[in-house]
């Protein structure tokens, strides 16, 4: 956790943890992706510092217009994985826009469990290898981040007309709480 660089010699802010247990959503389907969410129980308590902080989870359906994604994926579709953690601001699209894009392509878009977001600027997007990364918004009143999604899949990278699909965190809060509090 807390890593920003793939070279351990340059990245002294990271901490290593082992995954003790994995909880995959019982209704997970890999393709087309549905209920694409899992939780990890780590081998020890996380030590928070300036680079490792908790994030709030969105508990209700919201209407955010813009959000930030991050990941270690490629910077273009057939490119190499990034050596540095990349961050990109994305436009969150209305459900109708997402359904109009994905349903004709024979892909499911379920507005109750999915969000779609894509590039504001051409070629500035999540890409191959970023799946599982967060979609988050900065709450101005508290200066804390709120995670609203988890990158599930997309069609290509950096295309303004083709946003990516994110698992909508708020739809899975009861499942998350059942695991965390049990």
* Share of helix, binned: under 10%
Gyration radius (Cα, Å) is 16 Å
Overall pLDDT metric: 90
Number of strands: 9
CATH architecture of one domain: Beta Barrel
Q: Considering the protein shown, what is the CATH homologous superfamily of one domain?
A: Trypsin-like serine proteases
β-strand percent reads 25-35%
Describe what you observe in this structure:
This protein is mainly beta. It has a domain of 118 residues: Thrombin, subunit H, CATH 2.40.10.10. It is built from two helices and nine strands, in the order E-E-E-E-E-H-E-E-E-E-H. A six-stranded antiparallel barrel has the order 4-5-6-9-8-7. The radius of gyration is 16 Å and the shape is globular.
Tell me briefly what this model is.
The chain starts with 18 loop residues before the first strand and ends with a helix. It has two helices and nine strands; from the N terminus they run βββββαββββα.
List keywords for this structure.
182 residues, mainly beta, Thrombin, subunit H, two-stranded antiparallel sheet
